[in-house]
Prior knowledge:
By secondary structure, this protein is α/β, with parallel strands linked by helices. It has helices spanning about 30-40, 50, 70-80, 90-95, 100-125, 145-155, 160-175, 180-185, 190-195, 215-235, 250-260, 285-290; strands at about 5-15, 15, 25-30, 55-65, 85, 200, 240-245, 265-270, 275, 280-285. Strands 1, 4, 5, 6, 7, 8, 9 and 10 form an 8-stranded mixed β-sheet that branches. Strands 2-3 form a two-stranded parallel sheet. The longest helix is centred in the middle third of the chain and has 24 residues, at about 100-125. The model has no long low-confidence stretch (mean pLDDT about 90).
Amino acid sequence: MIRTQQEVLIVMYHFIRPKTELPYTTLPVENFRRQLKYLKMKYPIITLGDVIDGKHGCVLTFDDGIKDHYTNVFPILKKEEIPGVFFPMTACLQHKNVLPVQKGQCLRAKLHNNEFVLQWNEIAPDECKIDLSKIKESLGYPDDDKKTNKIKTFLSKIPNEKKDPILSIMFKTLFGKESAFAKKLYMNSNEIKDMVNAGMEFGIHTHTHPCLRKLTEDSQRREIEQSKRYLERITGKPVSSIAYPYGKYNPTTIKILKLLGIKVGLKAKGGINTGKLDLFRLKRCDTNKIEN
Ligand SMILES: [Zn+2]
């Protein structure tokens, strides 16, 4: 039964790959298929463009430009003739490197918490060492255990320019050449074009995935503008949405977005949107909330 309520459910996905390829926090492809079947039964599947036009339904969103979205998700959506909205970071399309956020994810997945902290602290200068007893858990990661929550909180707070050199050394030791890894990790421009031609929608996830509200106005504008320009060049379409990295933004972010003609901003949590929509603060549901 299709719901007729005035609801917009926006589901957030990251890694979606076969069960056998787990090293990362992942949704197995078969679970994605199952979720899709359920969501299709309950809602019309729509785009963010539809939401701007006042439609109600379910929007499928995919963050971070991960290759899984091209190889595993896109064929399913194409076959089912339903749209998805994709948010790649543009720096990895341009420079073919792995961004600190994914370096952190891959390293944590491979090393697990204790070894990650150990290796990090061996390299990090004193002011950047991880002391788990001093980190306060954040409300942003309610599904993680205490230690994982603290490490994620720490990594989301430390600026990229301090974080990246440490992660890069750890990454190179464990995974080898970064460009080869990046090629397998992220979708490329041709794949994006392919997806656009089949009706998929693309939005901004910034250039390098920083926590926007910690940046100056100028840096925020650069991150957003650069990413918008680059995406519009690849897709040949105006970009009108952003998924805030880590779900974080501030009033300055929204001021910049309005000036640039962006109409929709997505947070990283919050549940279902009901009633009058606040388009720059749309809530999302993480995929693991749909599972149950
Ligand atoms: Zn992200």
